[in-house]
Amino acid sequence: MAQFDTIIKNGTIVDGTRAARFQGHIGIRDGAIAAVSQTALDEASADTVIDAAGLVVAPGFIDLHTHYDAQIQWDPYCTLSGWHGVTSLVLGNCGFGFAPVAPENRERAMLSMSRVEAIPFESMKQGMLWDWVSFPDWLDSLQRMPKGVNVVSYVPLGPLMTYVMGVDDCKNREPTPEELAEMCRLIEAGMDAGACGWSVQHLGDGFTSVQRDYDGTPMVTDCMSDATCLAFAEVLRKRGGGHIQITQAQEDIREDLIFVEKLAEVSECPVLFNVVSANNYHPRQSKRLVDWAEKAQARGNRIYLQAVNVGNDLTYTFEDFNLLDGQEDWRDVTLGSVSERMEKMKDPARREKLRMDYDHGRMPIATGPIPKFIVKETVKPENKQWEGMTLAELGEAQGRHPIEALLDLVVDEELKTVIFTPAFNTDVELNREIFASEFTVPGVSDGGAHTKFVTIGRYTTEFIADFVREKGILSLEEAHYRLSCLPAKMAGFRDRGTISEGRPADIVIYDFDELRSTPSEIAHDFPADEWRRVQKAEGYHYIMVNGEVTFRDGVCTNATPGKLLRHGHA
After folding, report:
1. Residue 525 burial (CB < 10 Å; 0-12/13-18/19+)?
2. Among 29, 170, 238, 336, which is 20 to 30 Å from 525 by CA?
3. Is residue 276 part of a domain?
């Protein structure tokens, strides 16, 4: 009998612990790392030998912020993440998900997700299994699904609250004592079944409320009182485990952050705060968040920041874009069917409001300044002349107000004009400052969400290629600690995130000099022939999950060794 199933030899091992890289060899047996050695292992004792000479061998990446709850049902590898070296990920972020959901409310749940996370509605209708009702049932369903990655899940508060109170009541009143007790019981049941904690979006109803329900109203958790949220934190304190993921408003940054820290204090658990990002236009914003997290940790409250480390550029059409929802006037004209949106965009009164927003420099949170929006692609030949122009340039070229020029163009093309908003989180020193903090985790991939606008699932690849290789913001050892070991600790992955003997063999093997994301392209690979924007990866020679290769030189092997990790372990 072979001593090892696989030997990885001659690799540059970066083990995820921050220890210095070293040349070494890894032996894998029964899905686990059986040996890590600087001395050569007996190749004759292995069924398979991988020569990693000249390549980096590191722990698989852990993606803490995804919305693959629908997509995993038709895509076992949760791509983009699976293409970019992610071997474990967390579902159910922001308080959004599909459990518990009563059968008669399934379509309503999908409608919500079609707006708030911009997951194609027809893909969900055709691709989702719906063989569960309760949250424990959902975990059982996840366990049965073939998976190319390991998964854990939060208990998302949105569907839980809706299940107990109903959508309308959640948005208009406080729960009764009996309803609150039942919701706390359901969190307990979810945790008992294997959840890693609970998640919530708490954005209120102001300009920070950029992710809304299908009808433009806030999500149910946005309407939740602080007292209710703290009652849910108390559940985790009583259990003595789990953690909280919160996407929190920063309208009144002092008061909002005091509340987040109160969650950490009451729960006595780690709180993963979303989101921190460099902002070229408001450079003090990220510094305030980093300073707050550092001081909170010093006070004994375990606050961690999750940072966007790739460009926050967007490519979209007004046919289905939702990330202007924080501005009331733009939200109004981007709600409804295509024909309804077009009629709203023709309306003189609505145009006047949008002109005023433009003239007063109101900047949407997700997109940056409107004058910098760029006409990327047009549909009609006579409109090609406008391609590459910013809105400011478009208005000047036509001798008209930029809003009038934009709206006439997109209406003429039935909202199929492609718009590009440039990244505004690119300042190197701001990013260096963000990641100088011990308490910053890279990510916010939003994998499975906003599929026609963003491709942030490439963040792992670009963290190494951009922040390490090109800009020198972090060392390679530090980068792998942030991509694997730190998120494993945050999410309760008890035995993952490092290359160590006895741990599962979740491993990436890549060429440091060749690692990169491919250009953006459109893929028609969702159910109902829906499309999405994707960016694949180059430079990964092997991606391994539990000792099995899932991707070899970018080609999927069709192996599905991923596991549901209840309570953080198999």
Report:
1. middle
2. 336
3. yes
**pLDDT confidence of residue 86:** 98
Residue 69 within any structural domain of the chain: yes
| Angle, helices 157-165/177-193, rounded to nearest 10 degrees | 140
DSSP string across 23-48: EEEEEEETTEEEEEESSPP-GGGEEE
- Round to the nearest angstrom and report the end-to-end CA distance of the chain: 26
Residues 417 and 430 placed together within one structural domain of the fold: no
Contact between 200 and 231 under an 8 Å Cβ cutoff? The reply is no
Q: Encoding tokens for residue 348?
A: 């003189």
Q: What is the pLDDT of residue 1?
A: 56
Q: Which amino acid is at 33?
A: I
Nearest alpha carbon to residue 183 among 156, 204, 210, 223: 156
Ranges under pLDDT 70 in the chain: 1
Concatenated DSSP letters for 181-245?
Answer: HHHHHHHHHHHHHT--EEEEEE-TTSTT--S--TTSSPPGGGG--HHHHHHHHHHHHHHT--EEE
State the residue range of the domain holding 218.
61-313+424-517
Q: State how far Cα 115 lies from the chain centre.
A: 16
Residues 405 and 443 in one domain: no
Is residue 308 located within the same domain as residue 325? no
Q: Are residues 233 and 291 in the same domain?
A: yes
Do 307 and 337 belong together in one domain? no
Q: What is the pLDDT of residues 322-365, one digit of tens each?
A: 999 989 999 999 999 999 999 999 999 999 999 999 999 987 88
Q: Among 421, 451, 470, which residue terminates a domain?
A: 421
Same domain, 178 and 297: yes
Can you tell me whether residue 13 is helix, strand or coil?
strand
> At which of 364, 396, 421 does a domain end?
421
- Total domain count for the chain? 2
Query: Taking the model in full, what pTM does it have?
Result: 0.97
- CATH number, domain containing residue 507: 3.20.20.140
Q: How many CB atoms lie within 10 A of CB 404?
A: 15
Q: What is the DSSP letter of 66?
A: B
Same domain, 397 and 438: no
How does pLDDT run across 21-61, given as a tens digit for each residue? 999 999 999 999 999 999 999 999 999 999 999 999 999 99
